[in-house]
């Protein structure tokens, strides 16, 4: 574990800095949230936000105190990896928590109903009843949409709507409803699953009132004035097409002349639009209430947002690498049969590739509250503009080593004062980070910024 590599990253879903142990409850909540979500590392001896390394005086004593705090206050038991990392004449304590297989963990004095925390961005959030239920399902490798609805029977499924969805592929037989997971055997009876009702329920919104899509076209770049809106309540396979049609009529397109041919080009590639909509439907947390899937079209961007964080154990970095974990197996299975999904985990790559081929910025993926949002940008992507001196700084740092202000000045033939001013501007642009024990630390070094989770 490299301290410099960790300090190059911002605090986020899997990383947190603490100066000391003055707030043990805050540290315990963070460790619980890491274990319940995607794992993470907590560094003690670092001032948060400014990355100032203050170190710890007696790391062995603090290691024992941390171990006792965890043992006495977290249930089920949690076993961390604790490492003492050297920093000049001091040390920093690193506590590494892996994603747990016995979720949910909780703060013992608050109990299993109020003491469960999850990680949302760089903050810890108390899990509500729905999130605790999802944590438990995840532990037993179940998904919400696989659960039976024993009070309903096969008549609750609109078989005609299901058949129409499959018309272009094959003739759907009622016997296939069980193999698709739309129906399930429960205590000797064939009953619908949650996914079956969400997909093809005759009274879908009665049982799941937020299983629909809210779409809006806004004037400008905020939600101050709405120009058009739609409530898309069709069965989910049809809702995909309705959502795409709404987006198409809400975005601009231009004529592109290539030799003798004239073709239309949309503001966003249709592949990226389709993948964003399908991703939202397949990965929505339908156990949440008060939050449908939302599509918002602005002058400069398109946002597609679904209720539900990333599945537990995943980070934004993971999905960039093509790692996928399906939240709704029944919805996913049906969508794959219908051709909406080609290969698990490939949708993100197709979105990125289609945007790059169109000269657009890559999509932005964010966890906001308990929602997940994909944003497509209409403007062409531009990296921060660098002059020759800025580029020389970046090129030096690309070697992987850190440099002090004086070292930069000597290498690049500038005064230390001039280099200090230039380096601060690169820090503001997010291209460079400074690591040291304070603003007057003569050994303070600069590194290329790393990527956080």
**For the CA atoms, what is the radius of gyration?**
26 Å
Count of individual beta strands: 22
Tell me the distance between the termini: 16 Å
Oligomer: single chain
Question: Per CATH, what is the topology of the largest domain?
Answer: Heat Shock Protein 90
How many discrete domains? Answer: 4
State the shape: flat
How much helical structure, as a percent, in the residues? 25-40%
Tell me the structural class.
alpha+beta
Beta-strand content estimate: 15-25%
* Main beta sheet strand tally, sense and closure: 6 strands, mixed
Q: Regarding CATH, which class of the largest domain?
A: Alpha Beta
Low-confidence stretches: none
Please give the count of helices: 17
CATH architecture of the largest domain: 2-Layer Sandwich
Order of the strands making up the biggest sheet = 14-13-17-18-20-19
Residue-averaged pLDDT: 90
Short overview:
By secondary structure, the chain is α+β, with helices and mostly antiparallel strands. It contains 17 helices and 22 strands.
How is this structure best described in words?
- The structure is a single chain.
- By secondary structure, the chain is an alpha+beta fold.
- The chain has four domains: 137 residues, Schlafen, AAA domain (Methyltransferase, Cobalt-precorrin-4 Transmethylase, Domain 2), CATH 3.30.950; 63 residues, no CATH class; 165 residues, Heat Shock Protein 90, CATH 3.30.565.60; 61 residues, Orthogonal Bundle (Arc Repressor Mutant, subunit A), CATH 1.10.10.
- The protein is 35% helix and 23% strand.
- The protein is built from 17 helices and 22 strands.
- The strands form eight sheets. Strands 14-13-17-18-20-19 form a six-stranded mixed β-sheet, with helices on one face. A four-stranded mixed β-sheet has the order 1-2-7-6.
- Helix 11 packs antiparallel against helix 14.
